[in-house]
User: Fold N5-carboxyaminoimidazole ribonucleotide synthase from Stenotrophomonas chelatiphaga.
Amino acid sequence: MSTRTVGILGGGQLARMMVLAGAPMGLRFELFDPAADACGGPLAPLTVAAFDDRQALAAFAAKVDVVTFDFENVPADSAQWLADQVPVYPPPSALAVAQDRLSEKTLFQQLGIPLPPFADITSRAQLAEKVAAFGLPCILKTRRLGYDGKGQFRLRSAADIDAAWDALGAQVDKTGLILEGFVAFQREVSVVAVRGRDGSFQAYPVTGNWHVDGVLSASVAPARLSDAEQQAAIGYARTLAEHLQYVGVFALELFCRDGELLANEMAPRVHNSGHWTIEGSETSQFENHLRAVLGLPLGDTRMLGHACMLNWIGAMPDPVPVLAQSSGHWHDYGKQPRDGRKVGHATLRDDDASALASSLEQVGEALGRQVQVAPAIQALRA
Ligand code: AMP
Assistant:
């Protein structure tokens, strides 16, 4: 394979892990990010410029063989403009759908993927009307530019309508608003899957996820789902990927409620709930994404035993308790500590689910993070 250079729009931890996955394959990388301290920067050349800086994008395109993303909110017209100069995967049209919760949910509905009720909200009166139609609780979200639970307001009683409108009403003309019925789910799961340029498709085993304040805290793979549920979840992901003519890795997040799966959202990129694949799968999501965008054969998504990923938010803890475990792996993204920021993660893996639960117990106790590991332990022992 001749040396090829992959350009990544966004230079954060996802770009950083793509660079780490691509190095053994002899790939070179160019990163593009508005932040000079983007954490991929120490690993690959970084262009620091705004995502709509056409001059900088043109110079970037001239240096690369293919462009991909580590960030889904790159302006879709910048992605489309780049696609006229150099191959861009996933296709900018898929990015555009995923950037707008309303078009994303409308597409799920068209494709027969079950989901909670939703409505475009353009006024306070309409909000009140739809809250009455859906029943409480429900969630008002910005249509665009929301992530990790940001730009969301949960309505628990009719009295919250004013508060929700005060918090987000000003966004109507900027990002748009969507109201969703609240799903009293027992579990949240995600399908991380990959589609190649030739239409080949592979999915990793469905992953169970736990969020705190809207941010992923822990993931366990495989999730305890029935075979029928696994197949349904993966089937939805495949339908979506084929419809979008998708190329690369993506995640489909779903709620499980009383044996029913309801789609929440898709992320058109490698995903936090797939970080366990670095050590827990035959081929990591990062390597498979690179294979897909370069038109190479996809790698096997078979997983090795059971895996649990713990996110480190705000600041890195002591690595020793994780590294003391026989299959504990440490990832420090090299970021400055900051409240709510994803700064690293750990993955623990074991062939045996109860041995993995015991390792997690030891790590939780040593780090004073019993609350974070508890749902993962419970799932592994179920
Ligand atoms: P999102 O940014 O849409 O992924 O939302 C972040 C988190 O908020 C999700 O992972 C859920 O834990 C919760 N959430 C979002 N939408 C809903 C919903 N319609 N019903 C229940 N929980 C939700």
Remarks:
- The first strand starts at residue 5 and ends at 9.
- The radius of gyration is 20 Å.
